[in-house]
Fold this sequence. Notes:
heterodimer; A: alpha/beta; 8-stranded parallel barrel; 13 helices; 8 strands; B: alpha/beta; disordered C terminus
Amino acid sequence: MNVDKMILGDNQFFGVNHISEDKGRLTYERFKDIEEIRKIMYYSLDNGVTGVMFSTHPAIYEITDMMRKDPVLRNGFSIYVNVPYIVKYVRMVSTMGVARTIETMLCDKNFFGRIKYMAQTAVCALKNDYLGIANKLIDVEMAPFHGLNVKAVFLHNVLTDLALGYDMKNVISSFDKHIRSSYGIMPSYITFNLPGLCCLLDECGIRNSLIMTSVNKKGFLMSPGRALCEDAIRKTEHEIIAMATLASGALKPEEAYEYVFSIGNIQSVIVGVSTKEHAEETFKILRRHLS
Amino acid sequence: MRIGVVGFGKMGMLHGALLNSMKGVEVVGIADSSVFVLNAFKSVMPNIKYYKSYQKMIDESNLDAVIVATPTFSHIPIAAYAADRGVAVLIEKPLSNSLEEAEELKRLVEEKGIVSAVGFSSRYIPSFSKAKEILDGGRIGKVFKVNSCVYIADVFSPQKGWRYQKDISGGGAVIDVGVHLLDLLYWYFGEAEAVEAKIASKFSLHVEDEANAEITFKNGIKADFECSWSREGYRKLYIKIDIEGDKGILSITDQNLKLLIFSNEERTEFEEKYYSYADLYEGYYIDIGEPQYSRQIELFVSAVERKDGFAADVGSGCYVQRMVDGIYKSDISRQKVYFGGVGDECR
């Protein structure tokens, strides 16, 4: 698979900052204006970025509408989707429990083709096909991306790592099959536990997949530890996209990428930028390492 | 080690995964009141046994420990059923909606000599653990002032569900999110002597959305406490504690830690140290999004194996419950509420 070398992340657009919630809140306020998001996407394109990652945050409809209307963005970017938008589910599950969350999601007024999904889901429920219901939920999350060039669908790190914790090979296999057969694209995984996930994918017989995982000098979000993760990166046959490369701002781009590319076997990096200067500085250093 | 999980919502699911991925530990039973939940997980994890009745699960499964992750009002009866049969318990926070019931459980746990734990997970957030080391090492000297707050952007209209019914949940923002901060303050400064508080409801109909309190600890330290689950801009739970001592100042959030040590008596010169979350993050045996839970489970399993005490046990839960109770009582009486020892009535 031809994975884009530089992928723009979206955490900054939605106020996610692992180091400082204060900083996260400030950038979130700015990106409430969709024009600010458009600017960042243009700065990224100007710097050679060809991929963008999106979570299925409630604001995603506005962003994908903008992309469909703008041929430069529509044609310039491959999209990597991260499903599901976990914050929403966590809140819903805590408040109303698992069963009502699924019911509410499938009745969500935002999504297109509600009747068809409801009917298909009812069939799954009658057949006790709970993985089928999960796949329907993925379809709901994929709805905003119609008409755009989606290259891969990632299973959110919390779900990937939860499946790892329970050793749920059937969940991983079902996701893999559903994404390949329904969308014809690459099923992919985000994890904070790369060595463990590589073993689980091996046991599922899944090869040559795409894994996004934390890679940084601090060992931040690299469990069970940096050395074991480096070893897994070198040995794996799966393609790796490096994330959290700047350890949420704890590292400067120069030293950060010096480290990332010293490991070997990494050809793609995802990084979020929030200003023109930040985009120019970061992507310039990245281009030098990637060339 | 054989584990049973009661209540398979978000926390039950997370604890189960964290336990299941430890060597020598196995989740053998799951009890939940929802048939949908039981059937759904049975279809993906067929090796686990599923129960509608937690009593049946505990009776049949020869468990070493039970995780109690149900809505608050049912914590005590479930934990008591397990404790009575010599099974260790980890109870999600808050311990209970009633101080009296919590104290009854404490007596039972002590009588049976079982390992107990309450899910005060904030202790295992790296910055708060580091702060405990710094405070215990006396680095900032004698503490004389504490300011603290806990916020989350959660409730902005009347909500449905058990959390918002006082008779079931025991209260609102204070018992739901405030307990994390109250536990940290108890962990750092010990038992409270008195509390003076006000609560307010901005959106919820039956529970409070915010609270302000001044807590006086037995060692004389006074802490300002502010709590809200209706604070815009706080996507995730945000906790901040500023502690001023005669030798330095410690400022901690769930994401970083700043330590300032005065280098002269006039306190005009100082050395500053800053630790980000990335600096404090160590590898975990597994990290499912919030690694403090991984650390909590590791310590719990180790305590059960060694049949040893666990720091955040039901006893600690009772002290925290007492602070929660005091906040509510002070708001009603509009007076400062004084505590005796645990087991005594508030006077």
